[in-house]
Write a structure and sequence with these properties.
The structure holds two protein chains of two kinds. Chain A is an alpha/beta fold. Chain A contains eleven helices and 14 strands. Helices cover 36% and strands 27% of the residues of chain A. In chain A, strands 6-7-8-3-9-10 form a six-stranded mixed sheet, with helices on both faces. Chain A has a four-stranded antiparallel sheet with strand order 2-1-4-5, with helices on one face. In chain A, helix 3 crosses helix 4. Chain B is mostly helical. Classes of the chains: A alpha/beta, B mainly alpha. The interface between A and B is medium-sized, with 29 and 20 residues.
Amino acid sequence: MIEAEHLVKDYGANRAVDGVSFHVRKGDILGFLGPNGAGKSTTMKMLTGFLSPNAGVARIGGHDVQKNPIEAKKLFGYLPENGPLYHEMTVSEFLRFIAEMRGFRTGPDRIEKIGRVVEICHLDDVLNQTIDTLSKGYRQRVGLAQAVLHDPSCLIMDEPTEGLDPNQKQEVRKLIGSMSEEKAIILSTHILDEAEAVCNRIIIIANGRILVDEKPEDLRRRHPRYNAVRLTLHGADTKPVLNILSALEPVEKVWQEDDWLIVVPGKDKTVDQLVLQTAREHNWPLASMEKLPVPLEEVFWNLTQDN
Amino acid sequence: MQPVLTLFKREFYGYFRTPVGYVFLIVFVVASVGMMWFVGRFFDTNDAGLNRFFVFMPWIFLFLIPAVGMRLWAEEKKSGTWELLFTLPLSVTQAVFAKFLAGWAFVSVAIGLTFTLPLTVAYLGDPDWGPIFTGYFGGILMAGAYLSICSLTSSLTKNQVIGFVLSISICLVLVLMGWSVFNDLLLSAHLPIWVVDGLSNFSFVTHFDSMMRGLVTVRDVAFFLTLSAFCLFLNVLVLER
């Protein structure tokens, strides 16, 4: 539903986006990740038709956003970065303006559309307040409300949870999750946990190029310690244990860090069952054993540093 | 056409959402009446007409219309709302047109609020209504031309002050070129008459002059309309990037 085809954007001599292509289908929640200045926002602005690309095509629902902007713009909702809003309007005036712009001009139709977003974004308490006086969390929700007012089939959001407190973040994530089945969604973020919690697909972009386009779990697999386990023993001598473990076939590396023994398997192999079995065979006084946490941050760091 | 109407409404009511709009209306009316009464020495002319009011109009517009126009696009750019606006289903041309029309309507309200002047003149004497009507008509047309220039300059910058200064500068040139004092100055600098005449043909004052005397010609109306259309066309080009 949302297609980017070799999008290129230059700012002067600087190439901000360099041949970005992807395709977002219904049901996808695509997380757009990358360091600051990687070209995330620029790509999103080209998808919405706000910026025209130097080369390449952006399509929404099959409509070229440059050649057929009005048709394309009817199909998506957009939450720009920092949620710009008309601050002198009240929330209800603003939503009414958006509804009319979106073509809901008759009373009942408009009231129904506005009522729906007021409910899902919890705006009933602030309807008659000017946007100027709202907290950042409320403003972000107003921005979200205008983006989904016409129940669009595509949703493009630039840092939707930026500047919100943890509870508000959770709420916005839930909201996005609840809409995902019906829509194709793109959101940019630099919070990796958020991308993992909300998205079912992740694109990492750096220096204007796509480095990775895959599921969060596949991204995790790229970590050199993916599937590694760590264990502690009750006061036993760790030397022989280390020797036995390192002799196991799928094990690539074993070492000790404080009380933990860390066992790293070779690529695409698992060791947890084997380690348990070996521990039982040798009667090791096993105190605990767990999978080594694999922070996505490290995967992200490795990927973007290499570049 | 519906999006134009919606945006027009938002923009027009927008002038009344902040105190700035009311301040503008008051300043405009006070300045117009003050100039006519005190600088123009209305009573000394011994003439039941609004000539003394219309004569100052290009000068009052020079400062006050850029004050209205400077925010048209600069504010949207600065606050980022133009990103919101241009991802709604309306074209740049429609947006430019709607915002311009709203500003024009607002300035027309300000001009309309001077209605007490013709009433006063009618009370004091027996005015010739022709020049009064054509003067108001010309004034509104001229306001549109001023505003289109301000809309264009406002779209060139994020900074309202730059927009304001740029607008005043351009409008000042367009006023001066037709101002008799300035024309005499040019003539005394040994510029050929045809050059000075040519220049004054591009001035607001020259085309407004005949209208405030009661003469509406196609040439003058066309001047204001084509100037407005041309500036708005450039405005669209600037915003389409």
